[in-house]
Amino acid sequence: MNNHLNNVRVVLSHTTHPGNIGAAARAMKTMGLHHLYLINPRHYPDLHANAMAAGADDVLAGAMVCASIDEALRGVVLTVGMTARQRDISNEVMTPRAALPQVVELAQTLPVALLFGTEMSGLTNEEASRCQMLVNIPANPDFSSLNLAAAVQVISYELSVAAQNYQPVVQQAQPAAHQQVEGLMSHLEKTLHEIGFFTTQNPARMMQRLRRLYARARLEADEINILRGILTVTTEYNARLKARYQQEKDV
Fold first, then answer.
1. When you count CB atoms within 10 A of the terminal residue's CB, does the N or C end of the chain come out lower?
2. 108 and 199 share one domain
3. pTM of the full structure
4. Residues 139 and 201 in one domain
């Protein structure tokens, strides 16, 4: 396997048809990818998946079946979501040729994920919000929907091309892992609730916008620690103000 791709995992979310899992495994193996993660597949393991794998049974045998997106993305520092539609709140949508060299660069030393949604509707807004980058495969605008396995094949090929053209660079900083970012977002949402920020805001929409902001920033682990420290102090200060107000009210 190409060493540039050892840290790349392909994540298929809520796959409906087992044949697509097998065909995706075959597409991966032809381009040197071996790490397959499945989030709540409807049917798996399944003989139809093995039949469609056509020799990529080792990829299927090593597939990790996960109960949630957080489990599937645990440890990764970059999640690239595949999307075929425009979204009103999202990260910048890039072409595979523009995005995948960045994936190869990070994958030299750190785990990265390529996230594909279900066959019928693609990524949910919630899944898209967990991505730091969104990619759209250029296609006929009048008929732009690709079969899941075909999309995996195109992306795997473009990733292989990017790996072949890769020129080593010095990695200046290590991005934070998925679970660290999610810890920050949970802490931020809790703090904003506690200080009353959401009184006149739509919490879900506002959190999507904040996720977009932090996705662009590509936070490092130390930066997340700083931000969480600020949130902790904010919560403590807010609690003291409430206690003082209550004391004055009781006098």
1. C
2. no
3. 0.83
4. no
Q: Which residue range forms the structural domain that includes residue 69?
A: 3-164
Return the pLDDT at 1: 45
Give, in degrees to the nearest 5, the angle at Cα 227 between 225 and 229: 70
Containing 133, the helix (H) or strand (E) segment is strand 133-135
Question: What does the pLDDT look like over 142-188, one tens digit per residue?
Answer: 888 789 999 999 999 999 999 999 987 666 677 899 999 999 999 99
**CATH code at position 97:** 3.40.1280.10
Q: Domain check: are 116 and 50 in the same one?
A: yes
Tokens of 212: 């977009």
How many Å apart are CA 82 and CA 94, to the nearest integer? 10
CA distance 185 to 214: 9
CB 9 within 8 A of CB 76: yes
Same domain, 143 and 64: yes
CA distance 17 to 46: 10
pLDDT single digits (tens) 42-101: 999 999 999 999 999 999 999 999 999 999 999 999 999 999 876 555 567 899 999 999
* Structural domain includes residue 66: yes
Do residues 117 and 10 share a domain?
Answer: yes
Instruction: Choose among 120, 114, 112, 113: nearest CA to 84.
Output: 120
Q: What is the pLDDT of residues 211-239, one digit of tens each?
A: 989 988 889 999 999 999 999 999 999 98
Which residue among 132, 164, 196 closes a domain?
164
